[in-house]
Design brief:
By secondary structure, this protein is α/β, with parallel strands linked by helices. Helix content is 32%, strand content 24%.
Length: 338
């Protein structure tokens, strides 16, 4: 299907409340969803009988150009090999139903532009370019310089690595890499450059300082307290949970595919992360959930699923994706009739 007029017929279509309603037709025109329920679309059609239609997925936190867990493993690849692996990664991401993504470090403007211009198949991409962390910390001036460098290279987001990660033991993971003034400087620099700030924080002082400074989002937030969740909600900050990746890390630890992460540590992280997501939901803290609503006049990004989306296992199985539509164009289909 091209970007002209066509229709998806006979699908179970997700509604505004997350339920599904069978519709005779979902029209697509010039990259947007158009008329609904036309009995005779009068155009090219894709028969989606027995399939569920959901909006295209927005991956709100990814590292789409990282092809190994540990940085030293990523650095072993030659540039040409990294490019090949990244091209395969973005194409597979699109086939999995992700039509938009926000990269939290690693992707550059060249990759973003190649995707936007159609030179590579993949999701549309927002980028942060670099992750600003302990190596750049130590002074307000250094943080300003690092943030401005990212902006100069096309960053739409400034990414602060305010705490460590899963391999850091105990409460040491809550120690802030930045001072309050450094976080404030990063937000002010981003504001002047028309960007926003995402803060990798598992909790502690850095979470409070990020909310106070006006950061747009807290990434992970695994050990946020109830008080911190409430303050973030009052400030209009968004929590970006990353539940799935930690489950994958657990599985890789169990399979022996990665080292340096104790199994009890990752199990505890998964339990704490689920708890903070429940706290956020109950407290009115916005959660980045990565999807929208199918409605006339909205961008025609959609995924057709061969399995019931009410079953979480559907989203663990790549074979569940029967077709993907991006900007009104059918970019992936598995055995569907047109």
């Amino acid at each position: 299907m091209s970007s002209g007029e066509w229709a998806i017929v006979n699908a179970l279509v997700m509604d505004a409340k997350g339920g599904f309603v069978r519709r005779p037709s979902v029209g697509i025109s010039a990259g947007l969803f158009a008329d609904f329920n036309a009995e005779r679309p009068g155009r090219d059609v894709l028969d989606a009988r027995g399939l569920w239609l959901i909006p295209g997925v927005y991956d709100c936190h990814t590292h789409i150009s990282w092809n190994d867990f540990h940085v030293e493993d990523r650095d072993r690849h030659e540039p040409a090999e990294r490019e090949r692996l990244t091209a395969a990664s973005v194409a597979a991401t699109l086939r999995g139903g992700v039509t938009s993504a926000r990269d939290a470090g690693g992707a550059d403007a060249g990759l973003r532009d190649a995707l936007a211009e159609g030179r590579l198949p993949g999701p549309r991409l927002q980028i942060s370019v670099d992750m600003i962390g302990p190596a750049q910390a130590g002074s307000v001036a250094a943080i300003r310089t690092a943030a401005q460098r990212a902006l100069d290279h096309g960053a739409q987001w400034i990414k602060l690595m305010a705490t460590a990660g899963v391999a850091t033991p105990g409460d040491a993971v809550l120690a802030s890499n930045f001072s309050r003034a450094e976080i404030q400087a990063a937000v002010a620099t981003a504001d002047r450059g028309g960007a926003r700030v995402m803060v990798h924080t598992w909790g502690g002082d850095s979470a409070d300082w990020a909310v106070e400074a006006g950061a747009a989002s807290l990434e992970h937030g695994i050990y946020l307290t109830q008080e911190q969740v409430s303050r973030a909600a009052d400030a209009g900050v968004t929590l970006v949970p990353t539940l799935t990746i930690y489950r994958h890390v657990r599985d890789m630890v169990l399979d022996g595919r990665i080292d340096g992460v104790p199994l009890p540590r990752i199990v505890g992280v998964i339990e704490a992360h689920e708890l903070v997501v429940r706290r956020a939901h109950d407290s009115g803290l916005p959660l980045a959930v990565g999807s929208g609503i199918i409605a006339a006049g909205h961008r025609a990004d959609a995924v057709l699923l061969a399995s019931d989306p009410g079953d979480p296992a559907t989203f663990e199985n790549p074979a569940s994706v029967a077709a993907v539509v991006k900007d009104g164009i059918l970019v992936h289909a598995e055995g569907l009739s047109e």
